[in-house]
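TL;DR need structure tokens for one chain.
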Amino acid sequence: SGVPARGPFNSMLPFGYKGDEYYSNDPEKAKKLLDKAGFADGDGDGIREVDGKNIVLEYICSTRHGKRAQSIGTAMQSQYKAIGIGLKIIQLESIVELGKKGQFDFMYYRMTSAPTADPQYFLDAGFKTGGYGNDGKYSNAEFDALCDKLDNTFDKAERNKMGIEATKILLEDNAAIFLFYGLGHVVTGKKVDGVYRFISEVYYIDDRVRMK
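>> reply
TL;DR here they are.
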């Protein structure tokens, strides 16, 4: 389960985007744009063609991400079919190699975007030019400049503001499809106390945990 995402950071975080949706789900507009671009379904099989071949995109995901990743692919498959685009779902034990080679149309990634309550880690790793997790090879000079500025900015309020500015650039460029913020549960016994959950973290055991 989860809530729809508006960028990489939950709006409950001080650097999370709190504005309106950037994109709407408008299948009819999508069809018109595809028609205008010359992608037509010439043979009437429901899938548009380019150079005489059906347009079939590939969505890859890892088996370790389970049924959720596959279900998202199935939902996308249905939505793309509605506008005349095919989608093939490929679930592999590891997607690392294909990701590094850029051999994908869509790739399902699940990440903790703010493990230190700060935006820089995820922005640098996922979207800065040459970032180790930037498998989509996204590159924007304005965005890179913001990341570089974060290296020498120590005021927390200013860093939060820059995180929002960077998010807006990613949304405007459609650098990634941010799907949802996952919801989780922490279950403890009656003898455990001091377990605190941070909004964007997955680790809960620290020096505050006590056994009664």
